[in-house]
Amino acid sequence: MPLLTLEHIRRIFKEDSQEVIALKDISLTVKQGDYVAIMGESGAGKTTLLNIIATLDKASSGIIKLDDQDLNELTEQKAAKFRREQLGFVFQNFNLLNTFNNQDNIFLPLVLARKTPQEMKQRLMPLAKQLEITNILARYPYEISGGQRQRIAAARALITQPRLLLADEPTGALDSHNAASLLRLFDQVNEQGQTILMVTHSAVSASYSKRTLFIKDGVIYHELIRGDQSKRDYLTKITETLTALASEEVQ
Ligand SMILES: Nc1ncnc2c1ncn2[C@@H]1O[C@H](COP(=O)(O)OP(=O)(O)OP(=O)(O)O)[C@@H](O)[C@H]1O
């Protein structure tokens, strides 16, 4: 059974008397252990799609399920619990709290889930080692670099052992060195079984994924599967698809 199923998802925003069709008809399935990149030009509907999967927004019509849970039917309170327990988020701008030190930022979702301090420490230790953040846990977010901040944010997303990791432009604020380091980390956790769905404008970032979906005008326009290709060949295909998408725009 797929982890995530979307069937004919449609999202229409009503503004005054105007209707904006952000998502026209999106169907997709994501299996446990998959790593999916979502690309598309500005306004294509990527954020809308991510928000619906994240239960931050509701589809106008269509079916969306994670495991057997119908996400359209969650009340706001249940959706908040669902987000806390089943999802991990990594954003472009890190979203860390400057009034908490890094360790407390990472612990936040576990505090909300009422885990014991002992369990929090037990979960953090191996994760901190893997993310190479052990020596910066006592510092505050404003005392570390952007790349380190994103690793703290990744630790906060992963510490709940989420069913699905959602990343929105996770490398957007990072230089190429730090971006590569975060993407290698995503690779590692994906190899360990973590399912990842990442929205990105970066072809290089997408080339780390197993599948890339291209969204245009609210539909999935094309899909590339990495398969046995090298990262370089996959990257070339992603870039070519983006060029084809953009040139259609010009015609
Ligand atoms: N709350 C809203 N009210 C009205 N229209 C909206 C709303 N949110 C998004 N839209 C419209 O829906 C369409 C899709 O927007 P969305 O933000 O999903 O695109 P995107 O692919 O994420 O773009 P970007 O790459 O620039 O972030 C756009 O035309 C946008 O203007």
From TrEMBL:
Belongs to the ABC transporter superfamily. This is ABC transporter ATP-binding protein. Residues 4-242 form the ABC transporter domain. CDD domains: ABC_MJ0796_LolCDE_FtsE. InterPro entries: AAA+_ATPase, ABC_transporter-like_ATP-bd, MacB-like_ATP-bd, P-loop_NTPase. SUPFAM superfamilies: P-loop containing nucleoside triphosphate hydrolases. The keyword ATP-binding applies. One of its GO terms (molecular function) is ATP binding. It comes from Lentilactobacillus fungorum. It comes from the Bacteria. It holds the Pfam family ABC_tran. PROSITE patterns: ABC_TRANSPORTER_2. Keywords: ATP-binding, Nucleotide-binding, Transport.
